[in-house]
TrEMBL record:
Keywords: Membrane, Transmembrane, Transmembrane helix. It comes from the Bacteria. Residues 49-161 form the Phosphatidic acid phosphatase type 2/haloperoxidase domain. This is Phosphatase PAP2 family protein. It comes from Neobacillus citreus. InterPro entries: PAP2/HPO, PAP2/HPO_sf. The lineage of its organism: Bacteria, Bacillati, Bacillota, Bacilli, Bacillales. SUPFAM superfamilies: Acid phosphatase/Vanadium-dependent haloperoxidase.
């Protein structure tokens, strides 16, 4: 079933140059939308600073988990075992298809933001879905891997938020240092 769903989505690649470019752009550049939204939230108000940092922690934890899983659990990419419509950039054959790092990180950030800022969180969540679809479209991942990656990123984000009291002293110290640095700069520029 996973291969059938993969083929339904992936067979559309190569039919429309415009759609292919959109999918490649989403896959390669969507992370910059996430960064921009986090920067906007950072400067929006004091409470969002800590939440933005907590989102960074969620993404960092998810990155470490995906790295470990990919290291110990190699799954060949779809283009290794099957004839697919492969769009660039072509990942290395030795790179495991499970998990989709793009999707896991997108959902870690999206769910983390969704827990405290609904509008931006929903934008990021929907963009995460498009990132996952783009990875299938391009021939880089199977659908089930995308679903598991989205689940991993979401669960990691929930776990970080459940343990936010443990992270609070570090985040508060970082914000304090940031505010001191900004005050110092203001004083020096006067």
């Amino acid at each position: 079933m996973d291969l059938n769903i993969f083929r339904i989505i992936n067979k559309m690649a190569g039919r429309s140059r415009l759609l292919d470019m959109i999918m490649i752009t989403i896959s390669k550049k969507a992370r910059y939308v996430y960064v921009l939204l986090l920067i906007i939230l950072w400067f929006r108000n004091k409470n969002y600073k800590k939440h933005s940092l907590l989102t960074g922690v969620s993404v960092g934890v998810t990155y470490i988990i995906t790295f470990i899983i990919k290291f110990f659990n190699y799954q060949p990419r779809p283009f290794v075992n099957h004839e697919v419509h492969l769009l660039p950039p072509v990942p290395a054959k030795k790179d495991s298809s499970f998990l989709s790092k793009h999707t896991a990180l997108a959902f870690a950030a999206a769910v983390s933001v969704l827990l405290y800022q609904r509008i931006f969180g929903k934008i990021m969540w929907y963009l995460g879905i498009f990132i996952g679809i783009s990875r299938i479209w391009m021939g880089h991942h199977y659908p089930y891997e995308i679903v598991r990656s989205a689940a991993l990123g979401s669960i990691a984000s929930f776990m970080v938020h459940l343990t936010k009291k443990l992270w609070d002293p570090i985040l508060s110290r970082f914000i304090y240092s940031y505010n001191r640095f900004c005050s110092f700069l203001k004083f020096q520029l006067k």
